[in-house]
Write a structure and sequence with these properties.
Structural class: alpha/beta
Oligomer: single chain
CATH architecture of the largest domain: 3-Layer(aba) Sandwich
Shape: globular
CATH superfamily of the largest domain: P-loop containing nucleotide triphosphate hydrolases
Number of helices: 18
CATH class of the largest domain: Alpha Beta
Number of domains: 2
Distance between the termini: 43 Å
CATH topology of the largest domain: Rossmann fold
Number of strands: 14
């Protein structure tokens, strides 16, 4: 089954790739009968790229992979799927549902209302009605996205490139700058649980346990069960044992991620190189900012290339590259790596190699930005944190362009104007 690009200049993409069509047109999933496809193609020309789907397709998976803004559902004929739309909206609250059918069919109208659709379009009417409804739905989705204050920062990279170190220290820096905000670190990297070790904590609750108790996952349950650092950064590891994941439904896991994004102002996801699972794809494709880490090794570069294959199309505007454990005596520079991967650098693009300092911080069970507050590593890290904040909140002006002076990025008067 293939995507139907209604743009005359567009091409076709396979549903197995399930990749967004680029910056040209938003993607809409069409859960309709084959007889309706020609009418939809004509009506949605220059508005969206249509991807026909069937009731047997895994809609949560497709929505995660494609970041589709719209779902068109035909009534009647898709009643079995309509009954599941409520659960779908719990996982993807910004998804716009448009019903297609005939207004004289009262059963279809009633089913559409129960499915909480945004609008009902009569297929016997003019294509202009659908165009107007889709344009309104796209504007509504963009507005909802812009109004969301909670932010998701995903950090990806090969094993050993420092994703966990980056996540823990970034959360610590942001908590220091914005103490009124609730910040959560999702420790989904390999090996899982390292974030707790770096902060000298033990897990009271894991993501797998929370998914298994999804019905109890309210604000009180999660915040009482999570492990917290001394400065009130919450840490949630993926599991204690890999067997804890057995029997868990993917849709329940995605719903829990959405709940966490509602309860916490900033979620920093250490996903390591987990970009194959449904959770990994969700974190990649729904990130407000995606930070790709690599070192100067061939292994690190190959891991970065594999991650880019899954993330570039969805996060081209927010994707940034950072070379960790940088040693200027090695032949390859951050600028060279940036050109090779075709990804813009975050600031000057590197964190210096500080193996001894990092080990000392881990041994003390504290983030390195606290243990070595006056070290050049921390100064450099805070500058990069300011640069990353500018990609997450681009509407806030960031002064200065020297990575060695972080206070020029986030002076005290500027922090008071931060959009929270």
């Amino acid at each position: 089954m293939q995507a139907l690009d209604t743009n005359p200049k567009g091409g076709k993409g396979s549903m197995t790739d399930a990749s967004p069509p680029g910056d040209r047109l938003p993607l809409a999933l069409a859960l309709v009968g084959p007889d309706l496809i020609p009418w939809l193609q004509e009506a949605t020309r220059d508005l969206v790229t249509l991807l026909p789907v069937s009731p047997t397709d895994n809609l949560p998976k497709l929505l995660t992979q494609t970041k589709a803004s719209l779902l068109l559902v035909e009534f009647p004929g898709q009643q079995s799927v309509a009954e599941r739309l409520g659960a779908l909206l719990e996982v993807f609250p910004n998804l716009q549902l448009l019903a297609l059918g005939r207004t004289e069919d009262r059963d279809s109208l009633l089913a559409a209302v129960r499915a909480k659709v945004s609008d009902f379009i009569d297929t016997n009417g003019s294509p202009t009605d659908l165009q107007r409804a889709m344009h309104k739905a796209l504007q509504r989705e963009q507005w909802l996205r812009s109004q969301r204050q909670q932010k998701l920062i995903s950090i990806a990279g090969g094993v050993g490139t420092g994703c966990t170190t980056m996540a823990v220290n970034l959360a610590t820096v942001y908590q220091k700058w914005f103490p009124e905000k609730q910040i959560l670190v999702l420790d989904f990297g390999t090996p899982t649980g390292d974030a707790l070790v770096y902060c000298g904590l033990q897990s009271a609750l894991t993501f797998a346990e929370a998914v298994g108790n999804l019905a109890r996952c309210d604000q009180s349950y999660l915040r009482n069960g999570l492990a917290y650092t001394a400065n009130q950064v919450a840490i949630l590891p993926l599991f204690r044992e890999a067997s804890d994941l057995r029997g868990l439904r993917v849709q329940d896991g995605l719903q829990l991620l959405n709940i966490l994004l509602t309860l916490f102002d900033i979620v920093i996801a250490d996903m390591g190189n987990d970009f194959h699972s449904e959770m990994g794809r969700y974190l990649l494709h729904h990130a407000d900012s995606l930070l790709l880490l690599t070192d100067q090794s061939v292994r690190g570069l190959l891991a970065a290339q594999r991650i880019l294959g899954s993330s570039r199309s969805a996060n081209a505007q927010t994707l940034r590259l950072l070379v960790s454990q940088y040693d200027d005596e090695l032949a390859i520079s951050p600028a060279q790596i940036s050109r090779e991967l075709d990804v813009p650098l975050l600031g000057d693009g590197f964190l210096p190699e500080r193996r001894r300092t990092l080990i000392q911080a881990v041994n003390r069970g504290l983030p390195v930005v606290e243990v070595a507050a006056r070290d050049s590593y921390t100064t450099h890290f805070e500058a990069l944190a300011g640069r990353l904040a500018a990609t997450v909140w681009p509407e806030v002006p960031v002064n200065g362009n020297g990575a060695s002076k972080p206070r020029r990025f986030l002076p005290k008067p500027l922090r008071k104007r931060w959009p929270w």
